[in-house]
Design brief:
This protein is mainly alpha-helical. It has ten helices and no strands. Helix content is 80%, strand content 0%.
């Protein structure tokens, strides 16, 4: 990298985007290999999941409508009822397989990109083979962090549902109740976005530091202070972009039967490539934000110490100690 450590803390919205683009462009060869091996399959199963889920839904809904118009207890009714039950079972089995594959590929992609950028920042010799040999050793730590985030998200939504029920049975039907509901919705999305930022930053912490799980969440919560609004704007923009790609895929591919097969295939390829680029860019951005936050809090990482610990990934995994994360100097 051609940016000094002290300068990183002053990077804002556009600065982080520019730095991320420079990293990808300068090391496009290795990022292309990571994309081909991990991110493209991740994008593919994400979009295929949307298409297959839609097919399941259409089939199940069609059979349920037919079931409603069939005399209860008749052989035809029993046959359709069994068919619906089987389709629901296959649907949830498909969801379980999809979620497992998506989780594995997303964690592997995160580990690969974070390790790659750490090597770039420490000017280490970097090859795709080395990156792929490291990824399995970091995967378990990322999994623990993900499970902790999942637990936090679960309780967050439980609290949100309880608050909604209290609102519904107290002032829900009044004019003041509607205004209060809007405020609750805004607060809910702000909190959800905040937890999402904590999740992404905690993933980077889990790879580069000794903390993982809830400790990585606490660490990322402290790191993001001072750069929270920059992170909110960036991740909000990334999520909105993801939403636009999803809507386009739904409208032009999943529900675009009137457009013809050829056009749908073209649109599917465009959405597929855009999604892959977005995922890569997002993973690079979250790692750059980590280094920006470290610089902002003057928690510098000494390049030699980080380099030594990155070397241990190639042998037995030894995470970066907190004391080693106290001083970093970028090129």
């Amino acid at each position: 990298m051609d940016r000094e450590q002290e300068e990183m803390q002053f990077l804002g919205f556009f600065g982080i985007y520019t730095e991320s683009y420079k990293v990808i462009f300068a090391w496009r060869k290795i990022f292309s290999k990571i994309t081909l091996s991990l991110i493209l399959p991740l994008s593919f199963i994400y979009l295929v999941h949307m298409e297959v889920s839609s097919l399941f839904f259409r089939k199940i809904i069609h059979n349920e409508i037919e079931l409603d118009h069939t005399r209860s207890g008749s052989p035809k009714y029993e046959k359709i009822s069994d068919l619906v039950s089987n389709e629901l079972a296959y649907f949830w089995l498909f969801k379980a397989v999809y979620f497992t594959l998506f989780l594995i590929l997303s964690l592997l992609s995160t580990a690969a990109v974070v390790y790659t950028i750490a090597c770039i920042y420490t000017a280490r010799e970097l090859t795709f083979k080395k990156v792929m040999s490291v990824v399995p050793k970091v995967w378990k730590r990322l999994m623990v962090t993900f499970l902790c985030i999942f637990v936090a998200m679960f309780f967050y939504h439980v609290v949100a549902v309880v608050i909604f029920i209290v609102w519904l049975f107290s002032i829900g039907a009044s004019d003041m109740g509607y205004a209060f509901f809007v405020i609750l919705i805004i607060l809910y999305f702000v909190g959800f976005l905040y937890l999402t930022i904590i999740w992404h930053l905690a993933s980077v912490v889990s790879v580069l530091e000794e903390a993982y799980g809830f400790q990585a969440m606490v660490k990322s919560k402290n790191l993001i202070k001072g750069k929270l609004w920059v992170a909110i704007v960036i991740f909000l923009k990334l999520n909105l972009t993801l939403g636009i790609i999803e809507i386009a895929f739904q409208m032009l591919v999943v529900h675009g039967s009137t457009l013809g097969i050829a056009n749908r295939v073209v649109y599917a390829i465009i959405c597929f490539l855009l999604l892959s680029k977005l995922i890569l860019f997002g993973l690079v951005i979250q790692t750059v934000i980590y280094f920006v936050c470290k610089s902002y809090h003057h928690e510098n990482i000494e390049k030699s110490s980080l380099s030594d610990h990155l070397e241990t990934y190639l042998g037995e995994y030894v995470p970066l100690k907190t004391k080693d994360v106290s001083n970093i100097m970028f090129d």
